[in-house]
Amino acid sequence: MTSGGGRKGRRLSGEDIALWEDVTRSIKPIRRRAPKPQAVSESLETPAVAKPARKSAAIAPAPARLVPPKSPPATAPLEKRLKQKIARGSQPIDARLDLHGHTQAEAHGALLRFLRRTQSRGGRLVLVITGKGVRGESGGVLKRAVPMWLGLPEFRDMVIGFDTAAISHGGEGALYVRVRKVRE
After folding, report:
1. Is residue 41 a contact partner of residue 34, using CB atoms and an 8 Å limit?
2. Which end of the chain, C or N, has fewer beta carbons within 10 A?
3. CA separation (Å) from 63 to 35, 36, 53, 54, 66?
């Protein structure tokens, strides 16, 4: 006997064949589990008589799933090439927003209005300046909050992705944000 996909016609020894036969005899098939009973909503009618499932019956088709409304995918970092083009100046920045001196509430509202306005005007790339925060701390409040806000559902309709800006545009204290085209 030769091995099925073996190495250049290598033959199995008698010991290998005996070992393989022992292994294949000791294998037990996996039992198929009965499908879990599904909760029936009150609005759906239930059949008068439910037939018990037979073990030999084929697996029942998967139940219909509720499809959530379409929402844009989560934001992602900018592509390396795009970020390089922006840093070199060959990709223009359509608008800038400086959040220095704003409270969190003011900054959140200003960012939301800014992105909506930019999107409605057809802008595709913006620079949001958050500031680096007080030296010695882990960073400013807005520096930590703005990236979290950009991932929220209220911003997802407007934001494709974002990434830390190049040093020439503020470095760790600023973000490049790609704006989604307006859905029609």
Report:
1. no
2. C
3. 11, 11, 16, 18, 10
pLDDT tens, residue by residue, 101-147: 888 899 999 999 999 999 999 988 999 998 887 765 666 888 888 88
Supply 173's token pair.
């204290």
**pTM (2 decimals)?**
0.56
- The answer to whether 173 touches 130, Cβ cutoff 8 Å, is yes
pLDDT exceeds cutoff 70 at 37: no
Of 166, 170, 175, nearest in space to 111 by CA:
175
Domains of the chain: 80-179 (3.30.1370.110)
The answer to whether 117 and 83 are in contact (CB under 8 A) is no
